[in-house]
Write a structure and sequence with these properties.
Blueprint lengths: L1 H6 L13 E8 L3 H12 L8 H15 L7 E4 L13 H7 L4 E3 L17 E3 L8 E12 L15 H13 L18 H8 L5 H4 L5
Helix pairs in contact: 2-3
Length: 212
Amino acid sequence: KVGWYNAVLQPAFHLPYPDDTLAFVVLSTPSMFDKALKPFVKKERLKIIRDPVDQCVSYHLSRVKEKFPDQRVDVMFDYEILPSRKPKFLAQTAAHVAGAAYYYQRKDVKHDPWGKKKIYGVCIHPKYGGWFAIRGLLLFPDIQVLSLEQPVPVDCVSTEEKRIELLEQFNFHWQDGRYRDIIEVKERYSEEQRIYFATPPAERFRLLGLTQ
């Protein structure tokens, strides 16, 4: 429910819908690269390509909208920002309140070792660890779900020591991706996918056989 999301955020970040409005958080799993992105790029080869991943997600979510011709479906993407430069929605908060992934933050550590340093939080999925992404939000403004029960996200990094290790790795060593394996995972990005996301955006076109 939109109300679960709005309840944990300051008014400036609230979604402008009634509390009982139905919403879905959209995640991409490690297999997205082979099952969705590569076929999409191959099919769309002759069209203008900006960011292939964003365009692929947009394409698939537009197809979801088409499945509900009699419903209003609003789509928000993780990369969209408002004129105020704020993101349209806070993806990690949305994933947490929907029970999709646990959003580990500084407040989840009792004995804080970082002093005045800025520490960013990170979502961990119970199956994929950090090998996933939050891509968007589907909102159904005409559907009110009064009796929907809020699922609790799986607290899979449950010890103080592991939480400190997770936030340390994510904030200070995120490039090496070790934080993604803070728990034992069922599936990881392929080597090809790791190389793709480790490559500067302007150079990714070449990896997909595209000219910019």
